[in-house]
Amino acid sequence: MSTTQSTIQPTAAPEKLGIGARFSIHPHCDDFVPVILGALEDVEAAGLTDGLVLETDDVSTYVGATGAPAEERLARYLTGVIAAAARRSDGGHVVAHVLLSRGCPGERTCDLAVTSLPTPEPVTVEATGVAATAHWSLYPLLDGGSDDGDHMAHIEAAIAAAQRRGTASAAAHYATRLSGDVADVLATAVDAWAQVGAHVPHVVSHLTVSIASPSAGPAQ
């Protein structure tokens, strides 16, 4: 075996790298309990929990991807559950908080000394017909000491990609405002997070998603 062949590293599997999310949904209605529980049942019945590990506590739900395509599984699940909650709220205001994380600091089984970072394909999520806005932030955390160590370059490239996609509608303090079908909003954030993760070992992204808010947004 040549030296080049012997130094090729296998790609880190999703369950080893730690590709997952934490989310919570807050329907602003009196019957919020059946709305939340019903939305969770809807996505399970639709098969959107396949290939995912779900753990719910009194604060939020952890969603861990155990197989490829990890990013698409997460995007479809999160889109499905948020859209289902919006439909069950009959046009009421629904807010969701989503934290995406990928990388070794959150998972004890990952060893990047013997694996390489995956380069995922863009996710495909079917449109829901549910309009949403979001404040989105992206945090490349382990980028120091490498050729890709300028974290602002990654963030600016992600924002530019969202603008080309048509979902980045405005800048906000500490965030970028995304607008569109909730599927497009989630896909924008997941794609950006995943693409940065192909270069940076630990990446976190946060979204606050709002549907049918009574507050008027900024002028488009």
UniProtKB/TrEMBL annotation:
The segment(s) forming the Thiamin/hydroxymethyl pyrimidine-binding YkoF putative domain are 132-215
Which InterPro entries does this UniProt record tie to the protein? MTH1187/YkoF-like, Thiamin/HMP-bd_put_YkoF
Among SUPFAM superfamilies, the record links this protein to: MTH1187/YkoF-like
Looking up Pfam families in the UniProt record yields: Ykof
Entry's transmembrane regions: none
This protein is called what?
A: YKOF-related Family
Q: Which organism is it from?
A: Georgenia satyanarayanai
The organism that produces this protein has a lineage beginning with: Bacteria, Bacillati, Actinomycetota, Actinomycetes, Micrococcales
